[in-house]
Amino acid sequence: MPVTLEELALGSMPPLHQPIGVFDSGVGGLTVLKALRARLPGRDFVYLGDTARVPYGRKPREMVAGFAGGIARFLIDQGAQAVVIACNTASSAALPDLAQQLEVPVWGVIEPGVEAATRATRGGRVGVIGTRGTIASGAYQRRLEVRGFAVWAQACPMFVHVVEEGLAGAPEAEVLTRHYLEERPDLDALILGCTHYPLLKDVVARVVGSGVTLVDSAEATAEVVSSALADLPGRTGRVRHFVTGDVAAYEHTAQVIGGVDGEVLHLDVAELARFEARAGVSRG
Amino acid sequence: MPVTLEELALGSMPPLHQPIGVFDSGVGGLTVLKALRARLPGRDFVYLGDTARVPYGRKPREMVAGFAGGIARFLIDQGAQAVVIACNTASSAALPDLAQQLEVPVWGVIEPGVEAATRATRGGRVGVIGTRGTIASGAYQRRLEVRGFAVWAQACPMFVHVVEEGLAGAPEAEVLTRHYLEERPDLDALILGCTHYPLLKDVVARVVGSGVTLVDSAEATAEVVSSALADLPGRTGRVRHFVTGDVAAYEHTAQVIGGVDGEVLHLDVAELARFEARAGVSRG
Fold first, then answer.
1. Mean pLDDT per 10-residue interval, chain B, length 284 residues
2. Residue finishing a domain among B186, B217, B248
3. How many domains are there within chain A?
4. So where does substrate get bound (chains A, B) (predicted)?
5. How far is the C-alpha of B222 from the C-alpha of B225, rounded, in Å?
């Protein structure tokens, strides 16, 4: 049931209470949202899926940073007390600049994943898998190498599609996982460096075996954020979703991540562009 | 450079001359457009990629038929003298009803593919690969079986993504092709029953071997349409693209199909919904 922002402003919808803003290029960030809600059940959340401009992975870094800035400001305008960039590509492109510009705390998914891998590895042999954009950016590799780890990185461009097609438990997932991981060296930890990949945890675990600890960046991020932000005891958290693409398509795809809970509203990208344009303007 | 339909109506853009309308849920239909332009170099074309509502494959049949009706009427409103449904799912959902409702000729991609397979097979052992929607609809299987052929059908849901990711020549394409085709029986013809699949012709040919004739439904459709519509000698055909999703994303993805030639205009799906609503109204 799309409503316009004007209707929202007119109060036809109940306002969220001190929500936490979470965004991704699509549905992948819902894994982070789910992990956050499990830890902060009393908090409200406002989620934005930029499905009209998905995928971010192959777009120029500056463009993605601009998108992220516009979205973060929109979420703050919607009342967000903190912003979680639940997308590896946008985290890599927009942090730490965005953290310096915004008046609320902002987290990405890369640092928490790296920290969790640092705790998980015993021999310092760490692998990371992600989209082509994330792997090409070297964001994980640089942070892991300065810790003295031997790092193996592999782009898995078909994994997002396997998840979005609902095929995470199907033979395609197994065939592609074996393909992408067949040339891995001896590892003791493997970072799932894309917010879609937690849904492939079972098949990846089967292929790499129990000697490799899988690091779920959605869980790692939720842990970091929830330890910094207090829950609101006695409340039952609500979620409002905004999507820039088709609402029905979003709801359909989101089913593979357990479905959406809460209303889904369409938001025109032009609206986000207005917030992006404000990026250079003082918000004092 | 998006322009509004009002600007178009105001004549800021030169009108196309007796164009042929072609549409698909996304970029796949560009293979059909390319095959048509090779045969009708003097004709203008107006192409619509419904990228805001892609994929059609898992949407209800009636919904897809409605989309197709709205798009066909929009293309006719843009001057189209004929309409080519360059999408298997939409062809299956909207024909023959749409052919009876429209005042211009309309073709789909299924009948031409079946006809071409009928000419190609020697022993009557015909295979067809397509999206889950196309294979589940049984549209190819029914038409082939009434001709007395032994039919093998296989859904290949990851193939569209392999093509759209620009991985048609990459190891992923080979791994998935072997997976999808490994349990095939002895065939002598194989229909590429999705407009994206002509881009996988090389890898499919390598896997099935030279004893299997590949039937390219894009080529087959272009042959049927071009034999029915005259070229306009002495003219150089132009193309105008409309997309319901993001223009830059469309242009990027279209690169894997040789890129787009001609202007690309954004069209809001709400505009198409207005044409869809007219479906029930007499157009006399």
1. 52 83 94 96 96 80 92 96 95 92 96 96 96 91 96 96 91 98 97 94 97 95 94 91 89 84 90 83 40
2. B217
3. 2
4. 24-25, 56-57, 88-89, 195-196
5. 5
B216 CB-side CA count, 13 A: 19
* CB contact at 8 A, A143 and A111: yes
Structure tokens at A140: 């994980």
Considering the candidates A129, A194, A218, A265, report the single residue annotated as catalytic. Answer: A194
What pLDDT, on the 0 to 100 scale, is given for residue B9?
53
pLDDT at A165: 87
What pLDDT is stored for residue B129 in this prediction?
A: 97
Q: What's the sign of the alpha-carbon dihedral B152, A172, B162, B86? A: positive
| Same domain for B102 and B180 | no
Q: What is the CATH number of the domain that holds B259?
A: 3.40.50.1860
Same structural domain, B32 and B66: yes
Query: Residue range A82-103: average pLDDT?
Result: 93
Q: Is B56 annotated as a binding residue?
A: yes
Least confident range from A1-5, A237-241, B73-77: namely A1-5
| Residue A156 known to be catalytic | no
- Distance CA(B208)–CA(B187), nearest Å, equals 9
A contacts of B158 (beta carbons < 8 Å):
158, 161-162, 165, 167, 172, 176
- Per-residue pLDDT, A9: 53
Instruction: For residues A99 and A120, state if they share a domain.
Output: no
Write the ipTM.
Answer: 0.81
Looking at the fold, whether B51 and B146 belong to one and the same domain comes out as no
* Range of the structural domain that residue B89 is part of: 5-108+221-280
Span A135-140, average pLDDT:
92
Domain boundary residue among B217, B239, B259?
B217
Q: Which residue pairs, CB below 8 angstroms and at least 24 apart, start in B8-17?
A: B8/B265, B13/B240, B13/B263, B15/B79, B16/B44, B16/B45, B16/B46, B16/B78, B16/B79, B16/B238, B16/B240, B17/B44, B17/B232, B17/B235, B17/B238
d(CA B4, CA A270): 14
SS3 for B9-54 is HCCCCCCCCCCEEEEECCCCCHHHHHHHHHHCCCCCEEEEECCCCC
Mean of pLDDT over chain A = 90
A30 against B284, higher pLDDT: A30
**Are residues A100 and A116 both part of a single domain?**
no
Known binding residues of A for substrate: 24-25, 56-57, 88-89, 195-196
- For residue A49, name the pLDDT band (cuts at 50, 70, 90): very high
Shared domain for A173 and A228, answered yes or no, is no
Determine the pLDDT at residue A245.
86
Question: A231 and A205, same structural domain?
Answer: no
Nearest to A53 among B161, B172, B246 (CB): B246
